[in-house]
Specification:
Mean pLDDT: 92
Largest sheet: 9 strands, mixed
Number of domains: 3
CATH architecture of the largest domain: 3-Layer(aba) Sandwich
Strand content: 15-25%
Number of strands: 20
Number of helices: 17
Structural class: alpha/beta
CATH class of the largest domain: Alpha Beta
Shape: globular
Radius of gyration: 22 Å
CATH topology of the largest domain: UDP-N-acetylmuramoyl-L-alanine:D-glutamate ligase
């Protein structure tokens, strides 16, 4: 019997262990940190052997197949030892995909993954398909494979999950866009990171589909170099395409199988990046033979994702926007681009090798004050000090919101779009966003 070892005891780790157990495989879970109480209880209830606070190397290295949680750095010592012994190392999505015949729609990209994944799921659900939502979002994919009988899975997939796939072959894959992100994990090499994203399509065959962004330079460059067998379908905001998705005269258009079009003003999501996300989702829906009426209705009724350009109640004529999920410069670019009011911008956190020149022009045009929020704000201050007069340094959400409120006048906007990871002051981007909402609404009922 195959011996499975799962590294990491969070959502994906527990899910993988649960699936292995349900398949009658021998399974052991190891977490170098502490396992959260709810996952620990689930492991106990399901009779899954585990350890926390250490990695027992001998036990781990005797495995036939090791499943690694995406949060474990690829440069971790235990990973080097696993690779040296040539043990198969996979992500949870690779492992779970081996145990289901369901059609998988997998979405990756530097930005817009969560929104587009949620949007496609919303369209499929509205069309009454039997569909699950997973990957980087919601319930673990592996857990669902073990306990549900879905015909379709819509999965948000990160580069970290794709690093550890061997045979993963989605029916439809989407690569929304590429911009330098997580470069600290990719030897500060943009192309290496971009190639990790392309792993979503490398096992696809000519009965599968790959949806990509024709306006994205790095995607275009790598498509020319890679020998992909999959059917490629593009979307573009810049040019009219004979096949794929494009915009023309204020409408989004998809030419695939037949035609679909819809006025941009009827989309529930705003901003150019969301027009691109809506085009990509529409193409995927046409591939799955969903009716135009269903697609149109779903694109009109979709609610934006929490922590992604989320509007809070207006206070004294000031708009507050929670974009805590913007953990890289490109995501903040989209947020700043969509701003129509003078903006107080809250930015900062754990820097992943950011280059702020991408947003420099938008900051000059749209931002009236910068409020840095982090343990170390020096890099941001140094970059913008000659470009913006009003820059403030804060080290707690309470302080950042207080300063922002004091700067904001009637008709202004306060935007939390941090450009950075949250781990210096917060548990994760959700915690950061929730604290922002709490502080904004404090003393205001």
């Amino acid at each position: 019997m195959k011996k499975i070892v799962v590294l990491g005891g969070g959502e994906s780790g527990f899910g993988a262990a649960f699936l292995a157990k349900s398949q009658g495989l021998e399974v052991f879970l190891s977490d170098k940190g502490e396992i959260l109480e709810n996952y620990k209880q689930l492991l106990i209830d399901n009779g899954i052997e585990f350890e926390e606070g250490k990695h027992s190397e001998e036990k781990i290295l005797s495995a036939d197949w090791i499943i690694k949680s995406p949060g474990i750095p690829k440069k971790a010592e235990i990973i080097a030892k696993i690779k040296a012994k040539n043990i198969r190392l996979s992500s949870e999505i690779e492992f779970a995909a081996a145990f289901t015949d369901a059609k998988i729609i997998a979405i990756t990209g530097s930005n817009g993954k969560t929104t587009t994944t949620s949007l496609i799921y919303h369209i499929l659900k509205d069309a009454k398909l039997n569909v699950g939502l997973g990957g980087n979002i919601g319930t673990s994919f592996a857990k669902q494979v073990a306990s549900e009988k879905f015909d379709y899975y819509v999965l948000e997939v990160s580069s970290f999950q794709l690093d550890d796939v061997q045979n993963f072959r989605p029916y439809i894959s989407l690569l929304l866009n590429l911009s330098p992100d997580h470069l600290d994990q990719y030897n500060y090499n943009y192309e290496e990171y971009a190639l990790a994203k392309f792993k979503i399509a490398e096992n696809q065959e000519n009965d599968n589909y790959f949806i990509y962004n024709k306006d994205d330079e790095m995607s275009q460059k790598l498509l020319e170099q890679l020998d992909l067998k999959v059917n490629k379908i593009a979307f573009s905001l810049k040019e009219k395409l004979s096949e794929g998705g494009f915009i023309e005269n204020g409408t989004i258009n998809v030419n695939f199988k037949d035609t679909f079009s819809m006025k941009i003003e009827d989309l529930s999501l705003v901003g150019n990046h969301n027009i691109a996300n809506s085009l990509a989702a529409s193409i995927a829906s046409k591939i799955l033979n969903i009716s135009n009426e269903n697609i149109r209705n779903s694109l009109m009724t979709f609610q934006a994702v929490e922590h992604r350009l989320e509007n809070l109640p207006e206070i004294n004529g000031v708009t507050f926007i929670n974009d805590s999920k913007a953990t890289n410069v490109n995501a903040a670019y989209y947020a700043l681009e969509s701003m129509t009011k003078p903006t107080i911008w809250i930015v900062g956190g754990t820097d992943k090798g950011n280059d702020y020149t991408e947003v420099e022009d938008l900051v000059k045009r749209k931002v009236k004050a910068i409020v840095c929020l982090g343990i170390d704000n020096q890099k941001i201050i140094d970059f913008f000090k000659d470009k913006k007069e009003l820059i403030y340094s804060t080290s707690s959400m309470e302080e950042a919101v207080k300063v922002s409120k004091s700067l904001a006048k009637f008709g202004d906007a306060v935007l939390l779009s941090p450009c950075c990871a949250s781990f210096d002051l917060f548990k994760n981007y959700e915690d950061r966003g929730n604290q922002f909402k709490q502080q904004v609404l404090k003393n205001h009922n």
